[in-house]
Structure formats: structure tokens, C-alpha cells
Amino acid sequence: MRIALLAHLRHPVAPPFAGGMEAHAWVLAEGLMARGHEVVLFAAGDSDPRFTIDPVIPVHHERSFPGREHRADSGLVAHVDDGYAAACDRIAAGGFDVLHNNSLSRLPLERRRLAAVPTVTSLHVPPYDALRWFVQDSLVPGHRITVTSEAHGRAWWPDAPPEGVSVLHNGVDPAAWPYRERGDGSAVWSGRIAPVKGPHWAVAAAREAGLPLTLFGPIEDRAYWDAQIAPRLGGPVRYGGHLAGDALAREIGRASVFLFTPCWDEPFGLVAIEAMACGVPVAGIACGAAEEVVGEAGCLAPHGDGPALARAVVAALAIPRMVPHARVLRLFTRDLWLSRCEALYAQAKRAPRG
Hints:
This protein is of the alpha/beta class. Helix content is 39%, strand content 16%. The chain has a seven-stranded parallel sheet. A six-stranded parallel sheet has the order 10-9-8-11-12-13, with helices on both faces.
């Protein structure tokens, strides 16, 4: 198939990844190309040049409009909307078999655009006002919508998901997150360093449980880092930087427990299955899809209960490392995910369009 992938624009689709959406887009493009598809990635122009890039905007907008995400900045909104509108026009005229829309933009959801090219839209966030109506209005033949978990689906459609909506769990390549038979007794945390990801909870729990902890990931919220994280570093708690794939996999794989601390309705939790693939059990906060993703591979605590999270850390250490690894192999591999994507593309392509 000739496939257009439309990405989010805040960060480049390139390692080291700023977050799960960038990792998702990169692995999807690489995996589809490896399966013989012709892929064009519509993304920020400074994304990974190994792909055929059709730039939606010249550079990712966190560089050109730093710190303005989530602030209703009119200049940023116009910049992104102009880029997406032009990209959607190029996709419609580009002879694509299917569009996989991962953008979080309302523009690819307009009915006239959905009529132009078979579309699969993957939702990556809980429902919010700027997108909710457009998603609901886009439920037309030829459009397939995916959520990343059952919990995510319930957030969007509390009663039941409508026809055309399905769960598409994320997946990882086990070879990129190699299994290790034993850990070194330490804890590890990985993700965007921002309040919604909760690394302050990880620090407190590791200290209470008596485990050394290393934090990895980009510092997204500098004020939060300065106030809540940097003062807590020292002794057994350290910051290991923002690492790319192989280096990060090595660091996570050597740990004995992974701390997963979402403070919002996390739609999935890609970092958790990356650790699980390495054989690292999870101790975490039961927000969003955490229970659905982690399952028997970890122990969860209610949000806001620090002592319970510390107890979950200790309990997770007793879980055999083959348990999280086997859960990933059964449910969350890249090959399973890619096959489901291909099936959705075929469904969208076969469906009549208005």
C-alpha cells in the first residue's frame, strides 16, 4: 500500500524521542516500510531523514513557538492549522491508499477530507473540547477510529464505543528492548519530566522503599523540574539524562523495578511495556489504562497514596521477570500492532465513502 502517516508536530519524529507519540510515529513508519509498504511521513520537517518526509511545518513547533502548547496561542494555532490544511490537501491529491492520522488536529476529521481518502485515526489523548465534537462528527463509512486501551475508549464513549471504533494497543519490538534475566536491585523511571507523568511520586516511593532510583527523559517543564525534582536529587536518586533507544533499553533492563506514575488518565503507557519487555516488573499508580496494561506484571497503588506506592515497589520486586516479558509477547509486540494496523487500513479502503 501507499500510506500517508500524519504526525503530531510539537516535537520531531526522531530519536531520542520526546514522548510516546513521537516513538509511536517513528516505529509505525519503520515497521510499515519493513513490511514493504510505501510510506510518506507528514511531520515536522526536522524529523528523521531516514524516512520520506513531507514537511507539514519546517521545524517542530516547540522550537519555533517554545512553551506555547496548551496556552491557546493564536500564532501557534494558525501556524499549525495552516500546515495541516495544506498537508491534508496534498494527501488528498497524492494517490494514497490510506491515511493514518495521528495528528490530534480537527482538520483531517472534516467530512469532505474523509471522503477524499480512506482514513484511520488513532486517538492518543483523553477527550478534550477542541477535538471532541470533530471526532464524534467524523464517524462516517470509510473512517476507522482507534483508542489505545479499553479505559481510553470508556473515556471517549462512556456507554459503549460506536461502530467503527476499536482498541489498538501499542506495541514494541522485543529485540529493541531485550530481556534480561536479573536486575541490580535498583529502580528506574522513564518519561517526559512533567507534572502529569509524576516523577516526584517515583522519587518519594523509591526513597521510602529504600531503593536507588534513576530518572530518564526530557525535561519538558523546567519550572516543575526546578521546584519538584532537582531539589530531590542526590544520594541514591539521580537523573540519567535523555537517552536514545539502545542506551535507554540497557539502563531500564538492568533495573529490578520500573516506576510508572501517571497523574492523569493515561491512555496507554508505552514506557511501561518497554520496561516489561526487558523483564522489569512495574510498580505504579492506578490511573487511566495502567491496570489494563500492567496486569499481572506489576503492582499498582491509588493515586495520591505515597505509602501504598512504596509498598507496591517492594511487592513488585517479587514478581518473576519472565512474567512482564511474557505479557508483552502475548499482547504488546510491534508485529501484533502492525498486523492490526494493516487490517484497519484494508477495512477503511473497502468501506464505501460518502
